[in-house]
Amino acid sequence: MFKDPMTGTPGNGYVVHVWLGSPPQKLGVIVDTGSSNFAVAAAPNPAIRRFFQFQRSSTFVNLHRTFAVRYARGYWDGELVSDILRLGVGINGSARVQFAAIYRSGRFFVPYSNWQGILGMAYPSIAMPPYHPVEPVFNQLVRETGIRDIFTLTLCGPIVQSQNYHLHDVDLGGMMTFGGIDHSLFTGPIFYTPIIRKWYYQVALTGIAIGGRSLGFSCDEYNQYKTIVDSGTTNFRVPESIFNRIIAFARSMTSVQVPNGFWEGREALCWEANNAQWNGFPYLEIALDLSDVNKTNKQEHGQFTLMIPPQQYLRLAEHVTVHNSPCYGFGVERSQGSGIILGDVIMEGFTVMFDRENTRVGFAASKCASKLFL
């Protein structure tokens, strides 16, 4: 097992560092469990400060296959290449892997962010291009290095670097492990839910409640399209009908005055620093199907519930402050036809285990998240 510290900025995702080429060049890549391609910038771009300079690597090989990838936001065009990859701390040696060198992109890279590529961690079935997909880099690492087919994400949420609040002093923190589980990162038991289809990390959501009150939808209604665990998505995304009921319940249970457009994502809620009124908001509760490993009786039907406090689902707003005090947005939004997405809003309270050996996703209460919120 080896591990890699995670960094980032609010709204721009979680980043790990990789070393490519010979001699190694350090690059930041955003960790995305909702896609399967590993790709890095290989040409100058006004939005980024560095890129992979393949001409300086003695082990670089151009495989002369061009392809393009389109995301919900942005795209890139690149070429399939091969070079030596070193990842994290603790790995024995390195591995030659295939990946995409990005030469052209649009609305993909984020100005002033600290990443220059993307590390897609999902299954091969959604790798691009569809006619001749590139093997995901984690699959390559498992085969080449002999590590176990397991990785974990511990997303710790925003960390304030200064007593005097300022957005420039706020970073995201966390830890990623490859090839095993680091039990020092969490406390209590691990609750597993089965992966029901190997493409995205698709799971079965069995219920949603606000402040202990069920929304009242059936399991079939929740899973009509798909429910996925996706670190590349910031918010908790749900279909229109579910979203409308969430905000109706949340409004009725919130004792704090909020702006009219807050629940719809049009306005931010601002508090004086160190005067956040978390107790005025209800918990968000998400129930998932329970894996057999957690059941005392294999024939029983079971579920477990992720308790999401307002400190998680109220998201620190980018580039928005009032008198240098933090502002927050509602971290739940409409999914616009893509089913339900358990994004960073949900994952930040937990160490999440992507146990591909046993086709399941595990959740355990992380040690970092509860004490790092503003």
TrEMBL record:
Membrane topology per record: Single-pass type I membrane protein
Domain of life from the UniProt record: Eukaryota
Family (UniProt): Belongs to the peptidase A1 family.
Keyword Hydrolase: yes
A single GO cellular-component term on record: trans-Golgi network
Signal peptide: none
Keyword Endoplasmic reticulum on entry: no
GO terms for MF: aspartic-type endopeptidase activity
Protein name (record): Peptidase A1 domain-containing protein
SUPFAM superfamilies named among the record's database cross-references: Acid proteases
Matches recorded under InterPro entries: Aspartic_peptidase_A1, Aspartic_peptidase_AS, BACE, BACE1, PEPTIDASE_A1, Peptidase_aspartic_dom_sf
Single GO BP term: amyloid-beta metabolic process
